[in-house]
Queue: 2 jobs
Job 1
Amino acid sequence: MPERLYLYDTTLRDGQQTQGVQFSVAEKMKIAKALDGLGIDHIEGGWPGANPTDSAFFDEMAPSCATMTAFGMTKRAGRSAENDDVLAAVLNANTPAVCLVGKTHDFHVETALGITLEENVENIRASVAHCVAQGRETLFDAEHFFDGYAANPDYALECLRAARDAGARWIVLCDTNGGTLPYGIGRVVRAVIEAGIPGDRLGIHTHNDTETAVAGSLAAVEAGARQIQGTLNGLGERCGNANLVSLIPTLLLKEPYAGRYETGVSRDALARITQVSRMLDDVLNRVPLKQLAYVGASAFAHKAGLHASAILKDPSTYEHVDPASVGNERFIPMSNQAGQSNLRRRLMEAGIEVAPGDPALARILDKVKARENEGYAYDTAQASFEMLARAELGQAAEFFEVKRYRVSVERRKNKYDRMVTLSEAVVVVKIDGEKKLSVSESMDETGSDRGPINALSKALGKDLGRYQEIIDDMHLVDFKVRITQGGTEAVTRVIIDSADGQGRRWSTVGVSPNIVDASFEALLDAVRWKLSRDAVALA
Amino acid sequence: MPERLYLYDTTLRDGQQTQGVQFSVAEKMKIAKALDGLGIDHIEGGWPGANPTDSAFFDEMAPSCATMTAFGMTKRAGRSAENDDVLAAVLNANTPAVCLVGKTHDFHVETALGITLEENVENIRASVAHCVAQGRETLFDAEHFFDGYAANPDYALECLRAARDAGARWIVLCDTNGGTLPYGIGRVVRAVIEAGIPGDRLGIHTHNDTETAVAGSLAAVEAGARQIQGTLNGLGERCGNANLVSLIPTLLLKEPYAGRYETGVSRDALARITQVSRMLDDVLNRVPLKQLAYVGASAFAHKAGLHASAILKDPSTYEHVDPASVGNERFIPMSNQAGQSNLRRRLMEAGIEVAPGDPALARILDKVKARENEGYAYDTAQASFEMLARAELGQAAEFFEVKRYRVSVERRKNKYDRMVTLSEAVVVVKIDGEKKLSVSESMDETGSDRGPINALSKALGKDLGRYQEIIDDMHLVDFKVRITQGGTEAVTRVIIDSADGQGRRWSTVGVSPNIVDASFEALLDAVRWKLSRDAVALA
């Protein structure tokens, strides 16, 4: 019988400590939903009371299979657990589980907290007991445990025993400053178990300051710990936390873990982990790292000629796991064969049938490659990919021609002496031989100006003659901008998500050194995609 | 007496297998020089004969302290080592050392090479013996050793013994497909030593396919191997090789390695490792990853308020090593997680002294929190944070007032019937009571239009009267845009990185529903920050 390992995600709390990361409530809900879908056991949502976003998240969070967990700290000295307002705010989030961080390193107790060692033990005991009495599953995060154990093992263990005896379900050994190497982690976890904290109540929380957080977590499991805390993509303070996106495939697929342990993550869910990893980058507006273990775009890329030819004979020669098992794909730059069958599959998904060996396939592949080199991203912008393919196949209708556009943004004082901004766009198109001029500004209902792209979008969608009624239910739902490398110089890549009244959602891409040009290109593709779907019925 | 560990760098060979990486000869020379300056023992320069760049590199390479090493493969079956032209090309590079890769996995010998197991052993023996006879230090890279040992340990060991008996100085166990976890690596290395290959002739070569390449290398050292192969920044095929930039500080600074082992890297050289890591990113034209262990810009960044206040009392509380030891710096960003102590620390770094308990601290914190809630991001945009704080403290000079601006983008056909885009901006400022109108377009030297933000930046920087000469050495180096939640609605956040002739680099932020407004706000902050630093001397 495999033993159960528990996975605890702290992307929404420790992950938010990453420099430059600040999740909105909506983003937290999106990430929590993805974690829940994976089969993570605990989702730590934030520290209620510490900032308004975290409190709002717990108020709005939908029910989940995962145990939603609020983070906080042990009560302060000189007041009871019942009267500690910080602790009360944590409990008021009404989550089934609560994780409290507390000190276990004598130096920190005396230097940072400035209280006696006995007071700190009592803070741990009373806080855990209070949460348990409120019916919550209670976790104790033993901050700086490894440094504390090195400095004063008796005291560090006394803190853990206080949490254990007060009823903590999990006692989590935290390598808070990331300085403990895997060998040391394994040794200390074994010592803790020998000292009377059972392994099935022990968790591990590592940081990547020596680039060994994943290995440190594995060493703790080998030594007997049964809960792993980590984050998606290794997000987290400084160098990040242990990366669950690397750990989960290792635990499910690799010796000696596969078979020996089981987690809440099914093989079906595992096949979505690449998608989950990229969703997080999307939320953060980051380019996914190609080199990421298991899920990176290069993780199964075989550049060396020797490797690529061996892969064709037997993939197991250079792949330690099947890329499909983690939802990733093999990539062989040299292999036109693999490229073409891949391409045909993508075209079929877009409803375009092309016979194997059709010379258009090679032309489309070349075009995609050339344009991706200029900065386009067709993986994301499926609708633009489809428009490109249709053009190569001679299946693209023009619908209308854009003759010119002009957009202006002006900021100045109004008659009340307040600075105001106004954007205005003019778009000139030719439809059925007729020239149509449209002008729009971009003031919204609150009187604030939404900017030049909004004005352009409105002007473009204002009068497309006989196509107008088809695009009337279309609207812009997201707009992403990235500076990227186009050949030798920096260009702007704009990705626009559009939606319509039929519930469809599609993405298009534009690239230019000029952000307005890039945006207009993506807007045009979006309108033409919609027309290519719906205008046929009218024609 | 500490034992000597040897470091072998393969950035120029295995690192070049990274998707998208192709070094020029000049780049290879630059990287080799940096490696040599660090005190690396062996520099593997490439595979002479396999491509023209690698051959040219060996021809042109300057003398080095490191042992320059040419990579190649064992001779093919059916010819003698003396008559193998591939092997001859490797020897013709005239390097003091040669590293030959050969098969040790029976499956690969029979499937990929299609020769008998005995022929393969003879290829290893004869090739190593030939190089040794030519007076070269010879290394044998045992490809797929860990998979081979798992499948057929006797055969895998027989291959190693052939290399040992033929006089190979180093026998390197390669985990070619990256699938072996640290625990497995340690176990196999111990078995190999017990089977008669001495540890001081054993090297380890790992890949990061499970995000454990660094830990795998350390496990091999703990088991007795004495050479580590890796690359700068973990460059390499698929997920990369073991990252020497993480391994070197760990070996020099961390228990149980520091003191027990010594390498060719001095403490002085270690203090340049951050610089070496960033030099490689510079060669690759990549933005350095902030989260890198030891050398990343976030490696010593302390965002959580609790951590920052402890750091002020004693840096060792949240730092496992001194950032200066690796040439990196502590950084305490502003964000809505932060407390007053964090804030004071941050202000001090900006040269602003505020007494503890000063009521301005609370006002600044409130303002930062409110603005971050609107979408601003002050932990990235330090210069904007500083301008905000100076304004609250009444220390902000106005310098000039912006009366209005206007920017337009027009796309239309030119006289040659080609679609072209032109951006134009007008900025009106008032300086010392005098109104100044400036107009700019944004055509670059190649004739392509760089867009409205570029035009605005040029117009704003065109005539600032007596401040003009101060901002003349300023330029825009990066521009990041994201759509974020500002209160209840989506807004655009723009972060601009600027640089000047004194080598300073600073970041500013602007937020608005209108991307042009947001950009202009960030541009203004950038100019004012520069003036607040340099204009005082003139006043």
Job 2
Amino acid sequence: MTIHEIAEWLGGKVVGNNIESAPDIERVAKIEEADSGSLTFLANPKYEKHLGTTHATAVLVSRKLDLKKNVGRASLIFIRVDDPYVAFLHVLKHITPTVELFATGIHSTAIVPSNAIMGKNISIGSHAVIGEHAIIGDNTKIGVGCVIGNHAQVGSECILYPNVVVYHQCKIGNRVILHAGAVIGSDGFGFAPKADGTYEKIPQLGIVVIDDDVEIGANTTIDRATIGDTHIHCGAKIDNLVQIAHNVVIGEHTVIAAQTGISGSTKIGKHCMLAGQVGIAGHIEIADRTVIMAQSGIPKSIGEPGKSYFGTPADEARKAQRVYIAMKMLPDMLREFTALQKKVAELERKLLEK
Amino acid sequence: MTIHEIAEWLGGKVVGNNIESAPDIERVAKIEEADSGSLTFLANPKYEKHLGTTHATAVLVSRKLDLKKNVGRASLIFIRVDDPYVAFLHVLKHITPTVELFATGIHSTAIVPSNAIMGKNISIGSHAVIGEHAIIGDNTKIGVGCVIGNHAQVGSECILYPNVVVYHQCKIGNRVILHAGAVIGSDGFGFAPKADGTYEKIPQLGIVVIDDDVEIGANTTIDRATIGDTHIHCGAKIDNLVQIAHNVVIGEHTVIAAQTGISGSTKIGKHCMLAGQVGIAGHIEIADRTVIMAQSGIPKSIGEPGKSYFGTPADEARKAQRVYIAMKMLPDMLREFTALQKKVAELERKLLEK
Amino acid sequence: MTIHEIAEWLGGKVVGNNIESAPDIERVAKIEEADSGSLTFLANPKYEKHLGTTHATAVLVSRKLDLKKNVGRASLIFIRVDDPYVAFLHVLKHITPTVELFATGIHSTAIVPSNAIMGKNISIGSHAVIGEHAIIGDNTKIGVGCVIGNHAQVGSECILYPNVVVYHQCKIGNRVILHAGAVIGSDGFGFAPKADGTYEKIPQLGIVVIDDDVEIGANTTIDRATIGDTHIHCGAKIDNLVQIAHNVVIGEHTVIAAQTGISGSTKIGKHCMLAGQVGIAGHIEIADRTVIMAQSGIPKSIGEPGKSYFGTPADEARKAQRVYIAMKMLPDMLREFTALQKKVAELERKLLEK
């Protein structure tokens, strides 16, 4: 590709001299290893020093980078983009020979009942099973061994990796990615205690609804609602081994890292970030743009949007950090406290003597 | 259904006037939305105010509700039951057109060896694989893609959702529900350290035994014993993504929420409640009716039954909560402590001057 | 087997009288239940008292056991080995009639493309699917329903239990054991935030490399690298439901217990031991032989090898334990602190009066 083709494709702006005479880009490389014909990138300021010595033909840089102080080699060409690292990965992906993951068409061992409605240009992997009356959208790829329940719906341009299970009646939007082993729509964990100490199963009659552009990690589990729906709103990204209980709502563009668990009927706002191994109690609400740090436990609702939380039970991050710093001083302080108690007793005695 | 039919079916008691002239129940609805022909329920006291205005034909109420102070509409009919919400869900389930999840019979793509013993009226989903000499009880439904190991046993009236794996020789009782992706009988995590710092695998020769009326969540893992068995006793309910290590015993009617992990050889008593993300050390015993709050870590045995625990390492909940409240006061207290130290030093100086 | 055969097979040393006239070993048993023809073991010192009364023909004992003070029955024969319990399990395994878990050959329902390279003497279970251009080594057993991606490689003498998914291009060494439902090579969790608060998926172009003699637990997930590889070095043992993020490196012979999560680009040293439910932050390094106790959270690099850590955020175990002990004294100390403040104020008043 020529530099202009790459820049146009990335929506970037070319800066430099003699661009027409520059060689075409044939590969990508790290800035210290790049040679003529290579495209590289500069994302971390500590690599700026390499601009003067790199043999790369072109460098992806931030639109905000001050090029005056980074003179570089006279013939070095810059392509200004929003995020040089992401742009680099896109070029790398583009020029990497791709492995075709999904064969076209419906494999002869896949099972598709005649009452299922199948979109155009879909791929159904070997041994995948589509439920009765299920609906699969255009250009969607269903991996090997996936199971789509009866009356379930999967939108268009989705990718389901192998062995995903979507239970009956659940509804999945467009451009959704589900990684291997994810389970969508298992029964919520609901049991009514009986007088004799045993439990009666509460029927779980609702479904899971996953909106457009959601990605769900490997072996993550999302339970169906008791009544109504467990709802993952558009653009949410959920990592591996996450537990989403029944009737939970996850807001738009909220990101949830691995091994986090959300208890039943809790509502997480939009644009939140939950780090790994977080636990959230049931029947509470978390405001938009809340950030929850790793391993925190949230016992009650968070009403004010845009704040960070840490600890179990969690507190505002700044407060919690002060507590954790104080905790480390506690053993020394206890010793000093005992010493101070003795000193005060001594003072009392002396005062009495006077 | 008539009101009398519903009451009889639920084991409830009808209270009201002109019951014979009441319309049949045709649907269920929330108390504020119910109309003639609707059944509704009252579980939460804050909804009692709706009793005076609801258009429902009948209301499921607790046997303990004082109906004198809740006069309601003159023609309103009450059905007294133990748990109005659960009763409501049962009626809802009864009148909801059901999706048949499991086709009858053995699918042509399922693999059933001739030496397996298959009960009456069973369902084996497509691509499911039954092991050599396995035994499946009457009326049991094995979902799509399930794998039942050689010599394994599954009782009668069980439901196995898709892609469950039961390893060889494991034994599952009657009316057991296993959700999608659950793994029963994987090797316990046992390795003997060798002098050179590497590990030798300890053979895991035991099995998993799951008793009657147990429910196991999606993607939960239960390891087989080293020798003997990992045993889940009757009526236990285990949520999604739970880890049960080798040789663990879970007592009858104990409930374990999502992402909790029980280390090897630990014995959990009967009627315990373990909340989400709890961790329990190995080789300990937890007394009956113990309650363990979310994210707690239990490092040693709990001998006295019926108590609540919280924290890592956990303490009795009341003690632990006092500690957590005190922790939040710690940064302020440290500041005051330094001030007090100065004040005492000043007193000492003054006393010396006198 | 004769006692000499067992000793030779275990690499042990026989000690005792009249060994030639001893009966052959026909079974194994606990020391208190063993009879003539039985082999038993002594691992825990508190069972030494049984040496005088056991009817066993032979006892596996440690090479370090002082036999002079444990006279035992005159005809009792000892086999000295490194680890009597492990040796016992090996004999038990040897004499236990084994269930053949994997049928020989390629099942007729398995799918193996003609361009895949298949080793000698392999087993491919029913409904397993091998990817295009995949390579499977000699004597490897691929369980029912496993999915091996396009261009993926699995070495020789591996065991993959049912429903394992290995994504495209990932490379697995020799003698690797993958338990049911494990997912190797799912996309790393990488999204670039955009100006409008939505996210763009960062392509995950790398792979997972698993070296020889690794064991991976059930439903564990290991993400592929963004570029390069997520690398599990030789001899590492990873339990169930563990999350290994993209570009993580796990050192040789490191052991990771269930439900632990390692964030992206973190490098764990050799011979480390991570207990259950541990969380490790991203982009950090953990020194060799580090021990991390259960439920701990590690926010930053650990540079010094061979130390133990505990807590969230974690501290050296000895320090952390002092803090936890001090914490429990905190509520009482707060009360005493308030009393001391009053006492000092009183002293100040009295001093002023004088």
